Amino acid sequence: MKKASIHSHPLVHPLMDPEAQKENTQDSDDEKVVAEITARRFVPASVTTTSWEEFRFVGHEIRISEAVDCYGAVVWPSALVLCYFLETSVKQYNMVDKNVIEIGAGTGLVSIVASLLGAHVTATDLPELLGNLQYNISRNTKTKCKHLPEVKELSWGIALDKNFPRSSTNFDYILAADVVYAHPFLEELLITFDHLCKETTIILWVMKFRLEKENKFVDRFKELFDLEEISSFPSLSIKLYKAMKKNQRSI
């Protein structure tokens, strides 16, 4: 998702201050890409007994069942941003036959898209979310994916050595969309990132910035990982990061 040239952008006036030109261009590019991302969502015109939405990624219509009483059972904009990035960045981040884990998978949209792109996917979340997560993944991947994804419980910071032993855990990618918000388990989340990462593991993490407490998590994260901002969407207060473990560092 490259930004357009300042000099060729139709909204830029030649006498405009260079910094203002840059900001104007970035705002326009942001609006354009965000519009394209949100266009992937289709909301049903009629109300039914089951809350659901439809999304279009990787040439497939993906139907997601949601729950209105739980944060983890709703598709948030960060998930759309990550799905769009995975679909449009296959040359740089090829998912085919890669071992991928999504933490905080929620409704499973990101895991479904990664599976449709050819990855071995493990979708994880809290026990109470696994039923809806399994339902969404099964209905949208069966007979469509090279590798059927696995759904597995993962409570951050709990029984990591037992459920994901370092000796046999080897993920090429960790995917995370909107896992940092107003909850009391940020340190456990950091421990989980650290545990699941090998030296070659790439984290693709989309974060919506809301509160100062959450913003401080980024600084804490940088103590353990090399963090690179790939894309920014100011209109959504969302940033997309790539991260890798720093050498010889652990919690």
Report on this model:
With 251 residues, this protein is an alpha/beta fold. The chain contains 7 helices and 10 strands. It has helices at 18-38, 77-88, 109-116, 130-141, 160-163, 186-196, 212-222; strands at 41-42, 52-57, 60-65, 99-103, 120-125, 150-153, 173-177, 202-208, 225-233, 238-245. Strand 7, helix 6 (186-196) and strand 8 (202-208) form a beta-alpha-beta unit. Helix 2 (77-88) packs parallel to helix 3 and helix 3 (109-116) runs parallel beside helix 4 (130-141).
Q: How much of the polypeptide forms β-strand, as a percent range?
A: 15-25%
Number of helices: 7
> Helices and strands: which structural class?
alpha/beta
Span of the ends, CA to CA: 33 Å
Order of helices and strands: HEEEHEHEHEHEHEHEE
Shape category: globular
Average pLDDT for all residues: 84
Radius of gyration: 19 Å
The residue ranges in which pLDDT falls below 50 over 5 or more consecutive positions are 1-16
Strand order of the largest sheet: 6-5-4-7-8-10-9
- Tell me how many strands there are: 10
Tell me roughly what share of residues is in helical segments: 25-40%
Largest sheet: 7 strands, mixed
